[in-house]
UniProtKB/TrEMBL annotation:
GO terms for molecular function: D-xylulokinase activity. It comes from the Bacteria. This is Xylulose kinase. Substrate binds at M79, H80. Catalyzes the phosphorylation of D-xylulose to D-xylulose 5-phosphate. Belongs to the FGGY kinase family. The record marks D6 as: Important for activity. Residues 1-242 form the Carbohydrate kinase FGGY N-terminal domain. Its EC number is 2.7.1.17. It comes from Arenibacterium halophilum. Keywords: ATP-binding, Carbohydrate metabolism, Kinase, Nucleotide-binding, Transferase, Xylose metabolism. The active site is at D235 (proton acceptor). The lineage of its organism: Bacteria, Pseudomonadati, Pseudomonadota, Alphaproteobacteria, Rhodobacterales.
């Protein structure tokens, strides 16, 4: 038996699978996020380990015989978070998360540093790890002076499980400290950002074994004492492993809290000027590129809160089939934006509101706005040389057939819907554990899920949505010009 532990922003998921990769059981434990000031987003690492322990305990209670046969745990997690340890391995402060924008000034300064984009392959986004440490040096210098090690969130879980400090390349690529093409920490990048090589954990491939679970922790959790912990991957790399997106042309679109359009790449082909992320994959000698929008289902959740509704109640009246684009336009920049604008300060808007607009009009505009933003991501990916002829849809938003048909029509790509079951980051983490412990080839383990249905673009509506997207794209400069 193998387990995948996925540390998300809103919770920890533990998935138990057999050596054939078939899910046996799952447990979820919620997490809170602290927002002490506007733009700040933090979590206590102790909350992660408590949630992980609880999730594993739930699996053990529900599946005691299977958990007694546990051989490996693979990890997945939210990227970019700055988890800071002192020389004794103690946490210095709450982790600054991926969606924290306080370091936007530091990010802009670093991004203008000659050579930084060229080596890392990426823009320095405010959410990345390096600018967070620069912010810390300027605003909490006493804490910064005590930083002995910087860990990413899931790597802190590995440290808790094994006592070994380490990382892996798919997550490390989102720090601005990794030479992404060479798949190694860059002394040059570290020096440019005021950091040292000895503050970085050892980096390995996602299938690499970090170590064996600590004996005292195994006893506390009631787990076998020979369980091996495998490095795993950043959340999107792990999700790609979960859906079998490993080779050139494979890709998925994720309609989650944020939105992601990901394409696997056989080689390193950075194009930072597009604001596309170019990261190492969690499997050896492979990379991936993705466009990211910071608010996808978060936009629908926001509208649901304002209207006193549930997200499903907002989408239900729209039915299953799309019609022509609405006149109301929504710009989904509620938390700023990454791809293609790299703008943490921009904020969202409704354009074209009139007195006759109702709740259904607002809901449709939100779905259209998020889908148009993902079309911006596709156009940016195409400019890097990525080639997608279809995508798999995952995430909570993919449960709305209306939204999937809308997305297929706006992307002008067939969208595959997987059959019911586990196929996300937790499954990818478990698959990485299987490969790491048994030596199995990723291509043999990380297969694509069965497809329940393929939603094709509505060819009769593609021209009108193409025009509507052009109007959407033209709105961004006008929004930026507003005081």
């Amino acid at each position: 038996m193998f387990a995948g532990l996925d540390l998300g922003t809103s919770g920890v998921r533990a998935l138990l699978v057999g050596d054939n990769g078939q899910p046996v059981g799952v447990a979820d434990v919620a997490l809170d996020v602290q927002h002490l000031h506007p733009g700040w987003s933090e979590q206590a690492p102790d909350a992660w380990t408590q949630a992980a322990a609880e999730a594993l305990a739930q699996l053990k209670q529900a599946h005691p015989k299977e958990m007694a046969q546990l051989r490996g745990i693979g990890l997945s997690g939210q990227m970019h978070g700055a988890t800071l340890l002192d020389e004794a391995g103690k946490v210095l402060r709450p982790c600054i998360l991926w969606n924290d924008t306080r370091s936007h000034e530091q990010a802009a300064r670093l991004d203008a540093t000659p050579g930084l984009r060229e080596i890392s392959g990426n823009i320095v986004f405010p959410g990345f790890t390096a600018p967070k440490l620069n912010w810390l040096a300027e605003h909490e210098p006493e804490t910064f002076a005590r930083v002995a090690t910087v860990l990413l969130p899931k790597d802190y879980i590995a440290y808790w499980l094994t006592g070994v400090i380490g990382s892996e390349m798919s997550d490390a690529a989102g720090t601005s400290w990794l030479d992404t093409g060479a798949r190694a920490w860059s002394d040059d990048l570290l020096a440019k950002t005021g950091m040292r090589r000895d503050q970085m954990p050892e980096s390995r491939e996602g299938t690499g074994v970090v170590g064996t679970i600590r004996g005292d922790l195994a006893a506390e959790l009631g787990l076998p004492d020979a369980v091996q912990v495998v490095a795993g991957g950043g959340d999107n790399a792990a999700a790609a492993c979960g859906v079998g997106a490993l080779a050139e042309g494979d890709g998925f679109v994720s309609l989650g809290t944020s939105g992601v359009l990901l394409a696997a790449r056989d080689g390193f082909a950075p194009s930072p000027e597009t604001a596309v992320h170019t990261f190492c994959h969690a499997i050896p000698d492979t990379w991936y590129q993705m466009g990211v929008i910071l608010a996808a289902t978060d936009c629908l959740n926001w509208l649901a809160r304002l209207t006193g509704s549930k997200p499903a109640d907002l989408t239900a009246p729209l039915g299953d089939r799309i019609t022509a684009p609405g006149r109301l336009r929504f710009l989904p920049y509620l938390s700023g934006e990454r791809t293609p604008h790299n703008d943490s300060a921009v904020r969202g808007a409704f354009l074209g509101l009139d007195i006759g607009a109702g709740r259904d009009d607002l809901a449709r505009a939100v779905l259209e706005g998020v889908s148009f933003a993902l079309r911006d991501n596709l156009d940016a990916l195409v400019r890097t040389g990525a080639n997608l002829d279809r995508v798999l849809a995952i995430g909570g938003g993919a449960r709305s057939r209306y939204w999937v048909e809308l997305l297929a029509t706006i992307l002008e790509l067939p969208v595959d819907l997987p059959a019911q079951g586990e196929f996300g980051a937790a499954l990818g983490a478990a698959r990485l554990a299987i490969c790491g412990v048994t030596g199995a080839a990723p291509a043999d383990v990380m297969t694509r899920p069965a497809i329940a249905e393929t939603i094709d673009p509505r060819r009769d509506l593609v021209p009108s949505y193409r025009d509507a997207h052009s109007a959407f794209a033209a709105s961004f400069p006008k929004l930026k010009a507003m005081p």
